[in-house]
Amino acid sequence: MLICYMAFSQNEIQRFQSETDGTKHRIHFNNAGASLPPNIVRDGVIDFLKEEAELGGYEIHAERADELAAVYPAIAKMLNAKSNEIAIMENATSAWNAVFQALDLKDGDEVITNQPDYASNYLAYLNHPADLKIKVIPNHKNGDPDLTALEQMITPRTKLVNITHMPTNSGLIAPAEEIGEICEKHGLFYLLDACQTAGQYPLDVKRLKCHALSATGRKYMRGPRGTGFLFVSEKKLADLKPYTIDLHSAIWTGPSTYEVRKDARKFENWEGNRANQYGLKLAVEYATEIGLDRIWERVLYLSALLRQQMAKVDGVLIHDIGSVKGGLVSFTKEGWKAQDLQNALFEKGVNVSWNGIPNTYLDMTERGLTAIVRASVHYYNTEEEVEDFVKILATL
Q1: Average of pLDDT values for 100-106?
Q2: 281: helix, strand or coil
Q3: 353: which residues sit within 8 A by CB, 6+ positions away?
Q4: 10-37+291-395: which CATH architecture?
Q5: Residues 6+ away with beta carbon under 8 Å from 201
Q6: Sequence-distant (≥ 6) Cβ neighbours of residue 94 within 8 angstroms
Q7: What are the beta bridge partners of residue 212?
Q8: How does pLDDT run across 222-235, given as a tens digit for each residue?
Q9: Burial, 104: exposed, middle or buried (Cβ in 10 Å; 0-12, 13-18, 19+)?
Q10: CB-side exposure of 328: number of CA atoms within 13 Å?
Q11: How far is CA 388 from CA 2, 295, 309, 385, in A?
Q12: pLDDT tens profile 129-144
């Protein structure tokens, strides 16, 4: 039975659509790739770039310094964190690597991760200068990670637990809060890859008990591409040595001395896209004003509706696993290659995406999948769009 979440009124949904010009032209079910930004984010970035072109990049940076700096408390408020625990990064992978590369890992140290861990994370384990032992949490039959097995995997050599909160190839939501409890109990560093959940799921770092969290701006946050952010608990900041530093993250104090910043911005570079940074601030404020709890309810409802309706289409198989499923709906259609199906839907005015084995090698091979199509919904999507999408899918 489908639960009907009344998170938003019809007037509110109409407002979200009116404030997102892209919804006038296409059905955008590629929010797990890159969401449509609200008009205020688009216009904010464009206007900032115009000012840079007219007055100069440095000059506008100085003139609007307070507005740019406001992104830190905005993200901190959304995460229930402190401003000094936030860094602005180029993307989620750079944010994640900033922490991973700062850990003091040695030969034989153990990293525990979940089966649908993202390729960029797993490649970083394999590419690390130290010879790390990688342990993967087994899943229950329904796809949830086995937390009892997780505890049994922990040894004195375990130095990091990294969890991909929602994978790139299914709607699974990992039990991040429960894993945080286990990590706290055993004194383990806990890194949460929230790339796919930031903006759809109410992330509270106090409740998650994570020491670090990485995220992107372009997906469910509805911010510009080329933006990301990082949370690092102030309790762990002093223990982490940035892999790279520059004159922003450190001060050159003498011919052979320097001092590294004490806050999370020690992981930043001096140069960055300030127009996009401003756009990220606007996107965070937009989502926070709407309310992440309400957004999450709407996403749960729309994705459940989409799965229910798609399951009625001949030849369509839903591949989502787990007891809690977010806004990403993974599927295949009999007789279609994933990329061909994406292209055919695009021609019909529908945006989706696809990925294959290299994106989540362990999970895809374990489940016997070679490629899946992703239809990912967000709160500004409508029931009518779900209905139209399913009709189009059925006629292909």
Answers
A1: 98
A2: helix
A3: 30, 32, 33, 342, 373, 374, 376
A4: Alpha-Beta Complex (3.90)
A5: 165, 166, 173, 194, 292, 296, 326
A6: 228
A7: 191, 232
A8: 999 999 999 999 99
A9: exposed
A10: 32
A11: 19, 22, 11, 5
A12: 999 999 999 999 999 9
Q: Is 181 helix (H, G, I), strand (E, B) or coil?
A: helix
**Phi–psi pair at 349, nearest 5 degrees:** 90, 20
Contact 393, 345 (CB under 8 A): yes
Between vectors from CA 83 to CA 79 and to CA 84, what angle results, nearest 5°?
Answer: 120
**pLDDT tens per residue, range 278-333:** 999 999 999 999 999 999 999 999 999 999 999 999 999 999 999 999 999 999 99
Q: Name 87's bridge partners.
A: 230
Q: Give the pair of three-digit tokens for residue 306.
A: 């989409």
- Residue 281 to residue 145: CA distance in whole angstroms: 34
The candidate with the shortest Cα–Cα distance to 183, out of 211, 203, 205, is 211
> What is the arithmetic mean of pLDDT over 254-267?
97
CA-closest candidate to residue 289, choices 84, 12, 5 = 12
At 44, list the tokens: 């904010």
Backbone angles phi, psi at 274, to 5 degrees: -70, -30
Q: How far apart are the first and last CA of the chain?
A: 28
Query: Domain 42-289 - what CATH class?
Result: alpha beta
Q: Which residues contact 37 (CB under 8 A, 6 or more apart)?
A: 20, 222, 223, 224, 279, 283
What is the distance of C-alpha 151 from the center of its chain? 26
CB 225 within 8 A of CB 243: no
Q: Where are the domains of the chain?
A: 10-37+291-395, 42-289
